[in-house]
Amino acid sequence: MRTVLAMLAVVGVMGIAAPAAAQEGPRSIVSIYRAAPGQQIALLKWFARQDEIAKEAGVATSQFYAHQDGASWDYVLIAPDTTREQDAAMDAAAKKLGFAGGAMNGIELRKYIAEHTDTYAAGPTTAAAWLKRLGQ
Description:
alpha+beta, about 50% helix, flat, four-stranded antiparallel beta sheet, 6 helices
C-alpha cells in the first residue's frame, strides 16, 4: 500500500513539476479503478483478458496492483503508452481471441467499474534520474 501511494505521489509531482520534461523519456499510463459493487471478479477477468490480448499483440502487459488497506480504490494498473500501431495490433488480437476490440472494449469495461481515472506519467524512472532531467 505504501509503495503504491508513494508511487502515485511521485507521479503527481512529476506531472505538476515538469510536464515538458515528462515527454522526453518513456511514458506510462497510470489507471486507478474502483470496481462496481459485486463486479470485482468480472473486472479481474477483464484485466486478465487484456493481458492475453497484449501478449497476442506483442505489447507489454500492465503492472497490476491490488488494494490491501486504506483508500477507496481497488486496483492500480501501470501500462506503457502505446503507439497507434500497437493499438491496432491490440484490436486485431482482441478480435482474433474472440474479445471486444476498439471502443466496445471500453464499453465492456464500464460494466464492471464504479469509477476510474487515467493519467500519463514519465517513467519508470528514479528520483535521481528525474533530478538530472531537471538539471538539478
